[in-house]
Amino acid sequence: MLVAHPSLRDPNFRRTILFLSTHDPDEGAHGLVINRPTNKNLGEFLPDQELEKLRNVPVYLGGPVGTQELTIVSFQLDPGDSKMTFHSPGSLESLEEFKEDELGTLRAFVGYAGWTSGQLEFELEQSAWLIIPATEEILREQAGDKVWLELMKELGPAYYVLAMAPDDPSLN
Question: Which whole number is the average pLDDT over 34-51?
């Protein structure tokens, strides 16, 4: 996972946590912002669809690219590897066929985050992002900036002080 450094001011990524689903230095990277809830569910986004199990799936703003696209994702922790996997089934119908315990943490995303070749590496060199392992606890949280702020607190006092600083210190 990528966590925005407190000094990252880009409004698209300020105080965000991203699940990085693909990354290749030559091809670029793709990810989803997981802490920007829309406070709506899939039933509200797709009122004309017959949804049973999926009606209450929360919808998040996944990033600034492809904002006309809706992606449904299942995150599952593989306890043997301590690795989080990311599945995006092809259709609503295929998701409805899964049993509840097979779905993992289910979320829908409007848009995504994307980087071209070398762009993410440059941002990492500039310390715009912190890299942390994915956890189920982070994915369960839906409180937006609060999750990011809690991560800053866990990372240590220096990060927490930076996170609490006003955007424009001259207005303090």
Answer: 88
d(CA 45, CA 55): 9
CA gap 137, 121 in Å, rounded: 27
Cβ partners under 8 Å of residue 92, min gap 6: 46, 49, 51, 54, 72
Secondary structure E strands in the chain = 2-4, 17-24, 28-33, 37-41, 58-61, 65-78, 83-87, 105-115, 129-131
pLDDT band at residue 36 using 50, 70 and 90 as cut-offs: very high
- CA gap 75, 107 in Å, rounded: 8
Given CATH 3.90.1150.10, say whether it is the number of domain 2-171. no
Specify whether the CB–CB gap between 29 and 23 falls below 8 A.
yes
